[in-house]
Amino acid sequence: MLPRRPFSPGICALSLVLLAACAAPERSSLLAAGAPAPIGPYSQAIRAGDTIYLAGQIGLDARTGELASGVEEQTRVALRNLEAVLAVAGLDLRHVVSTTVYLTDLNDFAALNAVYAQSFPELAPARATVGVAALPKGARVEISAIAVR
What we know:
The chain is α+β, with helices and mostly antiparallel strands. It has helices spanning about 10-20, 70-90, 110-120; strands at about 25-30, 45-50, 50-60, 95-105, 125-130, 140-149. The radius of gyration is 21 Å and the shape is globular.
């Protein structure tokens, strides 16, 4: 049997301070008028501390509600929608550290990349690209992102 150590109030107090410092950051929802309103029970983005988690955006025009045609234009509009949400947080695409791209046809990968590269000319974020069976409103591409202040 191991010997028991005496109780130390100093260690307990330090543990409480460290626990408080590790607590979850305050969260808030972001809503951008320049991006389509959510079409379900979710936020356009959540700010948690210095990190912004952006919901997926499709190529839906925020003004008209119409889906852009073609994967290239849908990609442009989806990225523009992400920019609008980032702007509410005082950020832009340079703050994006990771994206997830969903494509209904992986044969559109090259077309997507051509447009995507224009939005991230310097340091492209980490990215995963996933082939999916379908996307909301018949979209061909959806992009979600994580940005850090």
